[in-house]
Amino acid sequence: MVNYGGDEVAATVIDIGTATLRAGYAGDDTPKAVIPTYYGYTTTEGSNGDGDVTMGEAEGENAPPKSASKVNMFVGNYGPSVWRHGMEITHPVKNSMIEDFAAIPALITHAFRDVMRCEISDHPVLVTEPAWNTTANRERMAEIMFEEFNVPAFYIANTGVLNAFAAGKGSALVIDIGRSTASVTPVVDGFVLRKGLTHSGLPQLVEANAQHILTNPGANRPGIQLLPHQLISSKQAVEPGAAPRFTLREDRATGTTDTWRNWYESREVEDWVQSVGGVLDQGWNEQAAVTRGARHYEFPTGYNYYFGPERFNIGEQFFTHSASLASKNQNLPLPLPTLISTSLAACDQDLRQVLVGNVVLTGGGSLFSGLSDRLANELQRNFPHVKIHAPGNPSERRFGAWLGGSILASLGSFQQLWVSKEEWQEHGKAIISQRSPSPAL
Amino acid sequence: MAGPSASDVRAALSLGEPSSSTPPHASATPLARKPSLRKPEGMPRELYQLIGPSAPTLIEQFAKPQLKQKPNLGSGGGAGQDGNAVAGSSKVKWEWRTFKNGARSDGLKLSHWVKADTDPNADYPFAKYNISTNSYVYSQDEYTRLLEDKEWTKEETDYLFELAREYDGRFYVIGDRYDFPNGSHRSLEDLKDRYYSVCRKLIRNRPWGGDEASKNQLLSSFQFDKDREVTRKQYVASLMNRTPEQIAEEESLYIELKRLEQRERRFKKDRDELLRTMLGIESGLADIPDEDGLSASASNNNLSISLSTSGLSIDTSNKKRKKGNGDVETPISATPSSSSVIQLSQPQKKQQSAKSAAYDAAQCIVRTDVPSNASSNKSAHTPVTLRSFKIPFIKSSNQQKVTQLLAELKISNQRLVMPTRDNLAKLEGLMEAANALIDTKKLVDKVEMDLNVARARLGMAVEGGEADAAPAGGSASASGAGGQAGVETQTPGAMDVDEDAEGEQEDPVDASGRGQSVVSTRSTRSRKQARRSMSISSVDTAATGAGNKKRKR
To answer: Mainly localized where (chain B) (predicted)?
Structure first.
């Protein structure tokens, strides 16, 4: 194995995204712990009846901003998704950037202690960051790791670079479509070119658009109620397109908070998008959309319907914005082709050919049905020699950055790059930027 | 070393070697039996291989089926019950050990799995990859002496060199990160230009330990031409910014050009082919010189009874012509028909120095030049031959008669006593003359015959008076048809005196049955004549010939 340059030192990798936090051992091919970054909290006394609920982390420092005498946090896979009386949902990551560091220790602790069942202070930790992360943010992360978790060594690496590494490339144009942000990152020799870095909140627009399509009456159907299944006590099977027959749980009518409901509704929408949504590979064409056939989907209320051409409308938002939408909204997030061409235009002439020949498509959002084909077609129209690397294995795309981190942290030649606790104590925050060059603007 | 290999993993798990998973009997029996496996005397080897006991399939077939071997896990069970533990595989102990990384400046102790028997004080194996490029550093003194530049301050130059060191000279990254406070905008070329020029100056002005060559080599590695680079980038940009219409236009122009070239090539090929068919392969057309290779290819011909193609070369001189496959023309193989050309042009001699020419003459050396285009391919190569192999043979239809004629003269054309060059040339001349004589004789005979027939008919007409006018007209039309056929068989472009003679000859009215035979002989002759005429004929014939051919396609 010396040939592969690997040397495992039991390092761990943490990749914090908008939707999920991924954590696991370096050298593995998938993260051991994948937990939602969203978490619920109650400011009243939480009911302790549920056995599988993760509780605790109510220390004052970690408490959410709401000032309360006693705060219960619910994190993990059985945290926000379980209905609790008066539970609010929030999340610390906005636009791929950690905005609320208070909850981060709780999330990491949950991932390590409750899912991986290991002690984080035993392991060197590699944490990922988006390319547009600020210096203050990365230093805060280092501080949390060294001061709170007492890790022996720490390193912070760029998701764009790690995605390129996961694809086995040193230079690549990384197109990362996550839950909230789509970004295009040119990576050359393992360095991000910050001038060519572009990102936009495109996936949020896609989701909002999908929600708009669902809740508003369509051609042959009424608007759809997005009620979470936790609020429904019983339902009856109905014909496709017929009005749903269900009864709500009256006992939960009062305790449901708006944030929890919104979060679950967006989950519904996400679910629907992932099940029926798609994009045509040759651009929008009503005829082609009709010929692709309808797809069936049933909502928690029991309402079910065959979604026809409208399901292809969802994916179209990734590539073009309709004129009406654009006129109404001045600062729409840039669509993918614009992001890519802007990014390439900012790069050196000589690099464009290299980058276009090494396009890496990654991120959970890129698993959207038909997206990679459409993207390939769009790119081929503009660049003759484009080559897209899009792993067929879904977990390689969902955990691309984590996988890259896993590879990096298990390399023998990487072991000299760790920022050790000793160095942290000696040099302070400056060592972080010095050791892992930041493309931060 | 640092990581486990497949055999290490096997060893750690106490699994046997891969081969040990096969049933022990199967592997043991052939080994045991091996000494007795000797081929019995007198049995053919092939047969023994078929039926002999060595056939491995038999053993596998009759071996008792066995369950998969139990993996030998755990440290205690070194030898299994059936004693099939692999001999020689000793347990390797691994341990989780902290190590010190030499590439690190601090005392961070990380741990990894290593074999217990490795040296705990050994260097970390990956520390050796911690290499950094040596970058140039300059002192304040050197800067003021050598590196002053009105565009750059020392601070900014320092900043540039710091970046170059940090990013190991990756200029794309340096250009991306370059952000000197209050500095003007620097393009990638500006940065490269400054960096490389500073390096060059430092190399040039510092004492150099090695030799000049290595210094120059080092200098050339720091060569950078900013203007050229900028122009190149602009060109690349203009290439990239082409609109689809421009690209399409360029494509179509390119295709058009290719098509024109192809047409030109085909045209030339066709004409060459045509000329060769008309002049005959023995005419040496393959050596038709192109305008720039005139002397070279003329020298090819200087031994042949020089078929000077100067006339042809003039008409083709405005077109570049690819040479044919370079049939080496031997003097004797020149056809009789080509002799008529000799008078028309001067044989071209290769320029030789007077001295060497004199020497050659004295020593009876005749130099045959290798064709200039004689490549290494086999077909172009003429091996050494005896002159007697080059005795000409009669190639015309009246071969029999020529042989007869030669026999009358008591000359054997099969074997010459002394087949020297001159003799062969003379023999050929003789054959040619004989051929011509026979041709003439034939012609004379026929004309006489025709005359006789005509005379006889005239007599009959005088006798029969006007009553016979109608049948005579019928036969005349028949002969007319025959004449037409005769004309058609002629190759196009053959315009010669002979043709006129033949035309005259056709005029006489002929009996239709006879006319047929006349046509057949005439057709062969006319082809030959056309060949002969070709050399005389001017450009027009060639052009029309090629044109005809082309139209046919």
So the answer is: nucleus
